[in-house]
Every structure is written in C-alpha cells, then in structure tokens.
Design a protein that fits this description.
Oligomer: single chain
Strand order of the largest sheet: 1-2
Largest sheet: 2 strands, antiparallel
Shape: flat
Strand content: 15-25%
Distance between the termini: 15 Å
C-alpha cells in the first residue's frame, strides 16, 4: 500500500468499486483446476451484485499509515464455502503460509 500514492485520491470524488459475477453454465472441474482456460463464452451473462463507495478521506496521518502497513488480507480467512478453489489458489495458500514463517502476517 505504501507504493500507492494516497494523494492521488485526496482531492477527487469517492472511490466506487462495482462487483459482478459471470454466470457459468455447465461448469466442469477443469474450469477451476485449469487456470489457462478462458471463462468468456457468448452465452454467459454478467450479473451486477452491487457496489461499494469509499468516501474521500486522508490517508496521510501516522495512524492511517501504521494501520495500512499492518493490515493483512488473506482469502482463506473466510467461511469454508467461500475459500478459493483450484490449483493456483492452493499454491497461493502454500506461499501465504510460508511467508508467515518469515515475519509476514
């Protein structure tokens, strides 16, 4: 996060993230296990789930910078049914666990 320039978002509008899913029909286990397969097919539709608006704010305080540096994001900190699938994500889990041993969170 330190590499991002927080001043770039200080004088503008709120930041808005839109969330959508691609509905997959007749999915197979290869769709999850083979990361080289494309997921775009003409008959698939995209469903908008919603959006999150983050109000404009200052990130340049000492507390905000400290919190940012010590924040941990891990997709496995979730309900079991929401955990990542596929061999690429199993590799990510191994990397996350190994990084903890070397001072990461």
């Amino acid at each position: 996060m330190r590499d991002l320039d927080p001043r770039a978002h200080q004088s503008g509008d709120d930041v808005v993230f839109d969330f959508s899913i691609r509905v997959r029909h007749a999915a197979t286990s290869d769709d999850v296990e083979d990361a080289s397969r494309r997921w775009t097919r003409p008959q698939e539709r995209i469903v908008r789930l919603g959006s999150i608006a983050i109000p404009r704010q200052s990130f340049l305080t000492q507390i905000a910078l400290y919190d940012c540096e010590h924040m941990v994001f891990n997709p496995w900190n979730s309900l079991p049914e929401h955990r990542p699938l596929g061999n690429v994500n199993r590799m990510r889990l191994a990397v996350y666990l190994a990084s903890r041993q070397y001072g990461g969170n």
